[in-house]
Design goal:
Layout: H1 2-19, H2 24-36, H3 40-53, H4 58-69, H5 75-84, H6 91-104, H7 108-115, H8 123-136, H9 142-149, H10 158-169, H11 174-186, H12 190-197, H13 208-216, H14 218-223, H15 232-248, H16 250-260, H17 266-282, H18 288-294, H19 302-314, H20 318-326, H21 330-333, H22 336-348, H23 352-362, H24 368-376, H25 392-399, H26 402-412, H27 416-427, H28 432-444, H29 448-456, H30 464-467, H31 473-482, H32 487-498, H33 518-527, H34 541-558, H35 563-572, H36 574-579, E1 586-587, H37 588-593, H38 598-618, H39 625-629, E2 631-632
Antiparallel strand pairs: 1-2
């Protein structure tokens, strides 16, 4: 052991001598590599030298060192670190990790003192806090624990200790266990459901195999009556089989369920119809509303009610739209979507005064539904006013701030996550004019995504040139004109795809300004007759724009010139965009609202609103947003039913 320490010390000294003459950035990179390798000795040497040289990013190296030695660090040492770096964005992460250490040690005095200063939301810390209160008996945490318990989310392991302790006291009841078990199955969390149900006293773990069978062969479970309905567990397994089958084979699920539904208690019968109705609505089944009627008495969750509204919209059943929104919890009703559609339903019912009152308030909000609401009041959103012009003096004042300098330096070193965290921390208390000055500074650095998000945060004073910048204008205009595309729509797509950051890359491999998949880019290159194409070319700005606009033109032609469908196809694939058509003509806003994938639905809304705001700036045709969306033509065929519309793009 002694020999190992001597060798490590020798290595550290050698490395120290090697990096002595390095530049600040090179030394910092060396520290970063030492942290990645968990080489505490080498990192400590780098920290000392960086602090001596007063490099502006030296605190980050000190932060990495504290992360490495946190488990062994004395409480006083951590407190001193937090006091020294109280104005750094990483301080709260150290505080969070320290809180977990204190909670694990059940050192509740310092834990609760420090928790009062903790800013972030961290479920592990929350569970330790509730556990501490429960053990100390100073606060009744039952309601908070049950709120945390009744979720299908995967929770940190320390939360189980909290649940164990409350289950022993009876505060976490068997009924609570059954409720979370059902919720986990409903949300497709089979492993969580298994862990939850084994909490029941005397539960036979051999029965877990029945859940696996319901997962693998739900139709067989129902058709062969393989699981008895008489027990609570048996009923839940059969309900899970119905739900599981309805996700991908709706008609088969309905047929199988009708044969066994009388074996369920009445509340479970309604619950099963509620799940069938939900899947039917997401698959645009023409009988969705009638299935919801069979679920009368069941407690529908947020998503079931949302899809009841969407199903009613597709068939213009405004009374059901209104009743379903009214059945929502108050918080859900306050979402922009449901206020807009509630006002539309009231308008259809002739309740003009009440409808206009909702539209009037909603129209002051700067988002897709707010702009649609403004148009219902005949307040056309054709050109958003530029309310404030930033001065050079204001920009210079922002640029001189240490936090902004650190953010820019981190960005230059490709430490993009840390750069954005530093920027968010620096601007967290800015007023509107400071935010706009910061956005202007970011724009001048060609840090477009930060410029946009910062300008988007203003509440009362705005500058839409900063929210909707037009970088690479010559390239976009040339490519858009070459394939006869609306330039505003092209900018709308690109703003949503990458915020104009050419290095953007999605989790599924899409790259560049217009987020092209390698296979798509290769297909476009072949269609364009480009010789010598290779995948690296997708990262070239001009090529990415040329290929992206070519594919947009292809998608638009494929959709008969309908930009909403082409936008949906750009995100989710052309075949899906066509599948979501109704048999007859459909208002595009309703088509968008009933897109089964949350990501695609929000994507289309934002792209079309972006295009609307870009149009007057680029000299494109000015029209209402509703006119831009248009009418989706009917497919002339019965709507596709039974599709697996799971929200997993």
């Amino acid at each position: 052991m002694l020999l190992t320490r001597l060798l490590l010390a020798l290595v550290a000294i050698t490395l120290s001598n090697q990096v002595f003459a390095l530049s600040d950035q090179a030394l910092f990179q060396h520290a970063r590599e030492a942290y990645t390798a968990k080489n505490e000795i080498a990192l400590a040497e780098d920290v000392a030298q960086l602090n001596t040289q007063q490099y502006l990013l030296a605190p980050y190296a000190d932060y990495w060192l504290m992360l490495l030695k946190l488990e062994q660090a004395r409480d006083e040492e951590v407190q001193n670190f937090l006091a020294q770096y109280v104005d750094m964005p990483f301080a709260d992460r150290i505080r969070g990790e320290w809180l977990k250490k204190l909670g694990k040690q059940q050192n509740w005095g310092p834990f609760f003192e420090e928790q009062a200063l903790f800013l972030r939301e961290d479920i592990a810390v929350q569970c330790y806090a509730l556990q501490g209160h429960a053990l100390l008996g100073d606060v009744d945490v039952t309601s908070q624990v049950k709120e945390l318990w009744l979720t299908s989310a995967d929770l940190p392991s320390n939360c189980n200790q909290l649940f164990d302790e409350l289950q022993k006291t009876g505060a976490l009841s068997n009924e609570d266990i059954w409720a979370r078990f059902r919720l986990a199955l409903q949300d497709g969390k089979l492993n969580l459901a298994k862990n939850v149900i084994t909490r029941l006293p005397g539960f036979d773990v051999a029965n877990l195999k029945l859940l696996d069978r319901a997962y693998q062969s739900p139709q067989l479970i129902l058709d062969k009556n393989l699981v008895p309905f008489k027990t609570l567990f048996g009923a839940e397994v059969n309900l899970y089989a119905v739900d599981r089958l309805a996700r991908s084979k709706l008609e088969s699920a309905i047929s199988a369920y009708k044969k066994v539904q009388n074996q369920f208690e009445s509340d479970n019968r309604a619950f099963a119809w509620g799940r069938i109705a939900y899947h039917a609505a997401r698959g645009h089944h023409p009988k969705s509303i009638s299935y919801y009627a069979l679920a009368d008495g069941a407690a529908l969750d947020k998503e079931q009610l949302a899809w009841k509204v969407r199903a009613a919209l597709r068939v213009q059943d405004w009374a059901t739209v209104l009743s379903a929104i009214t059945a929502m919890q108050a918080k859900q009703q306050e979402e922009g979507a449901w206020r807009y559609w509630k006002a539309r339903a009231l308008k259809e019912a002739g309740e003009i005064a009440e409808s206009n009152a909702i539209f009037s308030k909603l129209s002051t909000e700067r988002h897709y539904y707010g702009w649609l609401a403004a148009e219902e009041l005949e307040s056309m959103m054709s050109s958003a006013a530029i309310d404030y012009k930033v001065t050079d003096t204001e920009v210079t004042a922002i640029a001189s701030q240490p936090e902004i300098k650190r953010a820019l330096e981190l960005q230059r070193l490709d430490m993009r996550w840390e750069a954005k965290a530093e920027w968010a921390w620096a601007t967290r208390h800015f007023d509107d004019k400071q935010l706009l000055a910061a956005a202007e500074f970011a724009l001048r650095q060609k840090w477009y995504d930060i410029a946009i998000s910062t300008a988007d945060n203003t509440k009362y004073t705005h500058n839409f040139n900063l929210r909707y910048p037009t970088p690479y204008r010559d390239l976009f205009k040339k490519s858009a004109d070459s394939v006869s595309l609306d330039e505003a729509w092209v900018y709308g797509i690109t703003r949503q795809e990458s915020r104009f950051m050419h290095y953007a890359k999605s989790g599924v491999g899409a790259s560049g300004l217009m987020q092209l998949m390698p296979a798509t880019a290769k297909w476009v290159a072949k269609r364009m007759g480009m010789n010598g194409y290779n995948n690296s070319m997708i990262h070239e700005i001009s090529t990415n724009i040329e290929f992206g606009t070519y594919y947009m033109r292809y998608a638009l032609d494929l959709m008969g010139g309908q930009a909403v469908m082409a936008t949906a196809g750009y995100n989710a694939g052309p075949s899906r965009a066509k599948r979501w058509m109704a048999s007859g003509p459909l208002e595009a806003a309703i088509y968008i609202e009933s897109i089964p994938f949350t990501e695609t639905r929000q994507y289309v809304q934002k792209v079309m609103a972006n295009a609307q705001l870009y149009a007057p700036r680029l000299g494109s045709k000015v029209q209402t947003l509703k006119s831009r969306l248009g009418i989706i033509p009917g497919s002339g065929k019965p709507e596709v039913i039974g599709e697996d519309n799971s929200d997993t793009e």
